[in-house]
Design brief:
The complex is a heterotrimer of chains A (289), B (585) and C (370).
Chain A lengths: L1 H32 L6 H18 L4 H24 L8 H23 L13 E4 L2 E4 H23 L1 H11 L1 H6 L4 H27 L5 H16 L4 H18 L5 H18 L11
Antiparallel strand pairs in A: 1-2
Helix pairs in contact in A: 1-5, 1-8, 1-9, 1-10, 2-3, 2-4, 2-8, 2-9, 3-8, 5-6, 5-8, 6-8, 9-10, 10-11
Chain B lengths: L1 H18 L4 H26 L8 H18 L3 H7 L1 H15 L4 H21 L1 H4 L5 E2 L6 H5 L4 H24 L2 H11 L1 H6 L4 H27 L1 E2 L6 H14 L6 H15 L7 H15 L34 E10 L2 E11 L4 E5 L6 H8 L7 E6 L2 E2 L5 H7 L1 E3 L12 H8 L8 H6 L2 H21 L14 H14 L4 E5 L7 H16 L3 E5 L3 H7 L2 E6 L2 E6 L1 H6 L1 H6 L5 H7 L1
Parallel strand pairs in B: 5-10, 5-11, 8-9, 9-10
Antiparallel strand pairs in B: 1-2, 3-4, 3-6, 6-7, 11-12
Chain C lengths: L1 H24 L3 E7 L4 H19 L9 E7 L4 H14 L4 E4 L3 H13 L3 E4 L15 E3 L4 H16 L4 E6 L2 H14 L3 E7 L7 H9 L4 E5 L3 H13 L5 E4 L6 H7 L7 E4 L8 H14 L5 H20 L5 H10 L2 E3 L2 E5 L5 E2 L4 E6 L2 E4 L2
The chains are: A mainly alpha (289), B alpha/beta (585), C alpha/beta (370).
């Protein structure tokens, strides 16, 4: 039994890392721009697609594929920002209208991939081989997901805490008005955050594609879970999103040893709603981000 | 003109099933459009009228359909009977979701509905003993022998039923909109604080509106059954929620005709776009983006189908407003700390019935915080507030307004896009409330109360001298008149004690004099008044008694003459005040 | 000269005859096809149907030279859209026979509409048991039911594979639920683990770990989405599971094998069709399909093909394109040659073609298991 639980913990952590990375971008955007970016899941999907294109069509090594995914997705995100976020945000009812405009963008991105790439799933070759620690097996690629996840999280922590840009981002998140008063270009910081979040989503998509295949609908499935993670973590709270993402993956995997998987997920969602009732500010509210 | 249009639409709706006798394809599409329109109407209640975005209305739609389906399959209930009760669980679910999420603001409601739909989908797919899971509930065509013996075919009377359902839904929403309920929705959408300050229990109103919206969506779900006949967990699909949302937005948020247009488009467009099937959803997405960017208000305004508010006629004989006497307001040891800062520090005071009391003090003395604490907008850290016999500490602002304890804000809070009259009328439901049901049924009692509400609104407007302005947009009034309007709005709630926060700030000399006359006249009519202002000349001339706050503490109180002579006040405060006084004078 | 004249006369006469024939053939017989054409399976199924129409027209059409013409509409996996498409076909395009479709929900919603218009429905793929239980005798299904599959596959599992402990991973759909119940009956205590996965799930590591640690020597996968069963095969291989991997009949196809890669090796299954079936009709069918679409057809394509082929042939045999009662009777009574062999229909309209063909994956290819 212990073996089983340990193996499930390893499985759950990789899945949780995927949740955490997608949720991290979503929560960053919420924290700084105060909007929900509905197209975030599709950016994640495009990251996966770029990995497919780079490895199978262009024959690039996987490492380069990651780079290509980030570059391409950030470019697309810049376009999304230009069309659906920046001009809409300052209008009346801005934040809720952005929810809709990014929703339209997500449909558009999804449909474009469907009609050019087609509905077929594709396999991506990541790192080969696997590692055995006694009875526990972990593939090298899953290990890569875990390690890169940790590296990305540390890098973001460093940027937010130790660099000028990071301090500016945190200033805008706390009060746009105050940030403006001290001379910070708020619009630029918003765009920067949006693109940064897109870059994380792209890496996440490219990292996960070799584990769970690329499908054009992977973004739609990811965004719902990401919402749940963001809410439990406290909207706009980066630490909360990461911890809750990892926790959700872990719980789902461990719960699957005792109950049907779908039921486990339903239970977790129901807990979320109850959670909203008693602690609406989220698990990590009150702590600085 | 509008009446003719409505009559024509009704006649066409009744005739449609017969005109489309041999055309099951077109009558099917029309029935589907009607179902979608009801669904859009339901989402429009939250998105359009309350400003709450929902991503999971499929939860209510699907629940309605499943409750009916289960009743039909397991208990052999007649389909047409389920239309009466199957929407109820959806309404209850709406109330629950609303209660859980609404006090947290819009984004939470979106996520709570999305998650609810997802939970229901998972439960329905996995509770196989009850729902048959993905195998789906299979319902037979609900044929009615009596109607068929009259020569009607199934698709004809199904169409008739959906059109009747749509008519009913439109009628209910229409009547609610032109009732205290609908007026309060509009104020809530504008500002929650404003709504509370005119006695609207915002939490309850919102939860009720969401419950109604859930019930309507459930009703649409039940009406949908004969179209699909097999109920699967896909009914809870986020795509269906999105469709409803798009119907409301494309048609026109917050309009009655919008969802009808949107529903028709969503039923017909996919069929007419069959030649570009592959790009259908992409085209939708583009249309949506274009609508958001070019025509954010949706299609309804393009057709000039939205009607501006019609101001009812003023009563021939203007009545006089009068006020009931206020009980005594007793504040004991009131304290408020924000983090390390103590904004209000152990303040105790008593306001006697019929008094006009002024509160003065330098900036940051805690005057406004004091008002906010007493009016229930900010919970105190410590202390007690008694209004008459009742302890009211911790009560919501709206319940205090219903007790007769009202306030105004420093910045005149109004619904800028509504007319002057609408602003005042919205506040009259506080003394003359109306239940949801009575507003739909509109019996003689309701009509009499509505007449009283209208009369009261006219009286309040006349009192502040804005009768001529009644039909103008409130946002277009000059600043001084906006402040007067804010007072008229407060008066419409029939207060016994009115707290005014800097009513004279920003007024010129003449306007300030008129305000002073107005306040005197209110006091003569029995209204108890607490006044916070910087205009010391006006305060000294007007007030019976003055309370002086400094850095959160009460440092002196007494008649204007006593205050002017008080050494503590002069030492701690008046020295620094002269400049400001000069500025204000 | 006279010879020339005679020739000319003959030519003219021939031309008149041909024109007369043309007039008759100018009135093609319309057949409806519904399918979720934006999805991979829907498109494959439609391609099969298109090839059937093409081959019949090449052979000179039906009913004395009338061509057949397909009217195709998308159903988008959605019952209301399916119903709209059907009503359009039946009342606007006035077709009498509708073929195709993948989704059981759409098929079930379609049946009352079909019955209301007294039309024939040649359901190609929907597997839901209730599709052929409506009591209306003009519904036919080409695909096998899960129960039919079990009849032939169960003996193979019990007698040839002989597992000591079985685990089952099933999609949460009509297909998955029916199969789990059957496996419970079949294996009783030997079934040591079973779980279902949602149709959107994409990480199967947790489930595969549970299945492996249950001690099963045979893991049965019930998944109609190739990305899902392909992924499960990969997860099992990552975890080092080396027992039997069985895909329940009817789902294994070349794209799934491609997705799973080396992890699919030695996985076995069974189906009603493989392109390598050795009969003349199949050879013609495969050649024509490869020529038209550039790849080998598989089961989904064959089912689409049959749904049109049999309907057209039955119209021809019944001598009518409109009398659905007559056509349905002919379909019920006939024995139909199709690429998979001889197909007959029972009284409920359910097709059968005898034993399933056992399949196994060898060096990335699906081959017949002997």
């Amino acid at each position: 039994m212990l073996e089983l639980l340990l193996q499930q913990a390893v499985n759950g952590l990789t899945q949780g890392m995927a949740y955490a990375l997608v949720a991290l971008g979503l929560t960053m955007i919420f924290g700084v721009l105060h909007i929900i970016n509905f197209s975030h899941g599709e950016l994640y999907m495009l990251g996966g697609l770029m990995a497919v294109v780079a490895t199978t069509m262009l024959g690039l090594p996987y490492g380069l594929a990651l780079v290509l995914a980030v570059v391409a997705v950030v470019a697309i995100a810049a376009l999304v920002d230009l069309v659906a976020v920046r001009p809409v945000l300052p209008t009346k009812d801005g934040p809720s209208t952005v929810l809709l405009s990014t929703f339209a963008v997500s449909l558009l991105l999804h449909q474009s991939v469907l009609s050019t790439w087609g509905p077929n799933p594709s396999r991506v070759e990541g790192l080969a081989g696997s590692l055995s620690l006694g009875p526990i097996v972990i593939t090298n690629h899953r290990l890569l997901v875990l390690v890169s996840g940790v590296v990305i999280l540390l890098a973001i922590e460093y940027v937010l805490r130790r660099t000028l840009v990071g301090r500016r981002i945190r200033a805008v998140a706390q009060s746009e008005f105050a940030a403006q008063v001290v001379g910070i270009d708020v619009a630029r910081i918003r765009t920067l955050t949006f693109l940064g979040a897109a870059a994380i989503a792209a890496i996440a998509g490219a990292l996960i594609a070799p584990v769970s295949l690329f499908t054009p609908s992977m973004g739609q499935h990811a965004i719902i879970t990401a919402f749940v993670v963001v809410v439990i973590g406290g909207m706009g709270n980066a630490t909360g999103a990461v911890v809750c993402g990892l926790l959700l993956g872990l719980l789902e995997a461990l719960a699957s040893a005792f109950m049907p998987q779908d039921m486990g997920t339903a239970v977790i969602y129901a807990l979320l709603l109850i959670f909203l009732l008693i602690r609406p500010q989220g698990l990590f509210a009150g702590r600085a981000r | 003109m509008r009446r003719i249009l409505i009559v024509m639409a009704l006649a066409l709706a009744v005739a449609a099933p017969f005109l489309l006798a041999g055309q099951s394809y077109y009558s099917g599409l029309l029935a589907y459009a009607a179902v979608l329109a009801i669904f859009g109407l339901s989402i429009n209640l939250t998105v359009g009228y309350l400003g709450l975005i929902s991503f999971g209305h499929a939860a209510f739609f699907g629940l309605g359909a499943y409750v009916a389906g289960l009743a039909i399959v397991n208990f052999g209930v007649n389909y047409w009977v389920t239309l009466l009760f199957a929407p109820i669980p959806a309404a209850l679910l709406g109330a629950l979701v609303g209660f859980a999420s609404v006090r947290l603001g819009g984004a939470y409601f979106a996520i709570a509905t999305l998650t609810t739909a997802e939970i229901l989908r998972l439960v329905v797919s996995n509770w196989i003993d009850l729902t048959r899971g993905p195998l789906g509930l299979i319902v037979r065509r609900p044929r009615v022998e009596t109607l068929e013996s009259l020569g009607l075919v199934f698709h004809q009377y199904y169409l008739l039923a959906t059109l009747l359902g749509l008519g009913l839904a439109v009628l209910i929403v229409h009547r609610l909109l032109e009732s205290p309920t609908g007026r309060s929705w509009k104020v809530i959408r504008e500002s929650n604080a404003l709504a509370e300050s005119i006695g609207i229990p915002t939490m309850r109103q919102r939860v009720m509106a969401i419950a109604l919206s859930g019930g309507l969506a459930g009703f649409a779900g039940v009406l949908f059954i004969p179209r699909t006949l097999v109920l699967t967990p896909d009914l809870f699909n986020p795509m269906l929620s999105a469709t409803g949302l798009l119907i409301a937005i494309l048609g026109g948020k917050g309009t009655l005709i919008g969802p009808l247009l949107g529903g028709a488009i969503f039923a017909a467009l996919p069929e007419t776009l069959r030649f570009v099937d592959e790009y259908r959803i992409a085209i939708f997405a583009l249309i949506l983006l274009a609508v958001i960017r070019i025509q954010p208000a949706g299609l309804a305004p393009l057709f000039h189908l939205t009607r501006p508010f019609r101001t009812p006629g003023a009563p021939a004989k203007g009545g006089e407003i009068a006020f009931e006497p206020s009980p005594r307001l007793v504040v004991t040891d009131l304290t408020k700390r924000f983090g390390g800062l103590t904004a209000v520090d152990n303040v105790s005071m008593t306001i006697e019935p019929g008094e006009l009391v002024g509160i003065i003090g330098p900036n940051g003395a805690g005057k406004t915080t004091c008002l906010s604490l007493i009016s229930g907008f900010t919970p105190p850290t410590a202390g007690e507030i008694r209004y008459g016999e009742r302890k009211v500490t911790g009560d919501s602002p709206s319940s205090l307004v219903n007790e007769g304890l009202a306030r105004t804000f420093q910045q005149a809070a109004l619904c800028g896009s509504q007319t002057v009259f609408e602003n005042v009328l919205a506040a009259t439901s506080c003394p003359e409330p109306a239940s949801l049901l009575s507003s739909v049924l509109r019996g003689p009692g309701w009509r009499a109360r509505e007449a009283r509400r209208v009369r009261r609104a006219w009286e309040c407007l006349a009192f502040v001298g804005l009768t001529e302005r009644a039909a103008l947009e409130a946002g277009s009034l000059p600043y001084g008149e906006q402040k007067m309007l804010a007072i008229a709005v407060s008066l419409a709630t029939q207060p016994r004690l009115l707290m005014l926060d800097e009513p004279a700030a920003g007024l010129n000399h003449t306007e300030a004099n008129r305000l002073a006359d107005l306040l005197r006249s209110l006091r003569q009519r029995g209204l108890t008044i607490v006044l916070v202002d910087h205009n010391l000349r006006m305060m000294m001339a007007l007030c019976d008694r003055i309370i002086v706050l400094d850095r959160g503490r009460l440092i002196a109180q007494g008649t204007p003459a006593e205050i002017q002579a008080d050494k503590a006040v002069i030492a701690a405060y008046l020295g620094g005040y002269t400049a400001e006084e000069a500025q204000n004078a | 000269m006279t010879i020339l004249k005679r020739h000319l006369a003959a030519l003219a006469f021939g031309a008149i005859l041909a024109a007369a024939g043309q007039a008759n053939a100018a009135e093609p017989v319309k057949l409806g096809v519904i399918n979720p054409i934006k999805t991979l399976v829907g498109k494959q199924n439609l391609e099969g149907a298109q090839l059937a129409a093409e081959m019949i027209n090449q052979d000179g059409g039906i009913l004395g030279g009338r061509k057949i013409e397909l009217v195709t509409y998308d159903t988008n996996f959605s019952p209301p859209e399916g119903v709209a498409a059907l009503q359009r076909l039946l009342t606007q395009d006035r077709v009498k026979v509708v073929a195709g479709e993948i989704s059981s929900s759409v098929a079930l919603a379609a049946i009352p509409v079909i019955e209301g218009e007294d039309a024939i429905f040649m359901a190609a793929v929907p597997k839901h048991p209730d599709v052929t239980k409506s009591g209306y005798d003009k519904i036919f299904r080409m695909n096998t039911t899960t129960a039919q599959d079990a009849q032939s596959f169960d003996t193979f599992l019990l007698e040839t594979v002989k597992p000591a402990k079985v685990a089952i991973l099933a999609e949460n759909s009509d297909f998955g639920q029916v199969t789990i119940n059957q496996m419970k009956k079949l294996f009783g205590d030997k079934l040591v683990y079973s779980d279902t996965f949602g149709m959107q799930q994409n990480d199967f590591a947790a489930m595969s770990t549970n299945a492996r640690s249950s001690g099963a020597d045979t893991i049965c996968i019930v998944g109609s989405n190739m990305e899902q069963y392909g992924n499960i095969l990969r997860s099992l291989s990552d975890l080092g599971f080396n027992g039997n991997r069985c895909l329940m009949p009817g789902v294994l196809n070349s794209q799934g094998v491609q997705i799973a890669g080396a992890a699919a090796e030695k996985a076995f299954s069974a189906d009603i069709y493989v392109p390598s079936i050795d009969n003349a009709f199949n050879k013609r069918f495969v050649a024509a399909f490869e020529k038209k679409f550039g790849r080998k057809p598989e089961k989904i394509e064959v089912l689409g093909f049959e749904s049109i082929w049999i309907a057209a042939k039955a119209m021809d045999k019944a001598g009518t394109a409109d009398d659905t009662t007559k056509i349905a009777k002919v379909i019920h009574e006939g024995k139909w040659e199709t690429p998979r062999g001889e197909v007959t229909f029972d009284k409920n309209g359910q097709a059968s073609s005898g034993e399933l063909i056992r399949l196994v994956v060898k060096s990335g290819e699906i081959v017949v298991n002997r």
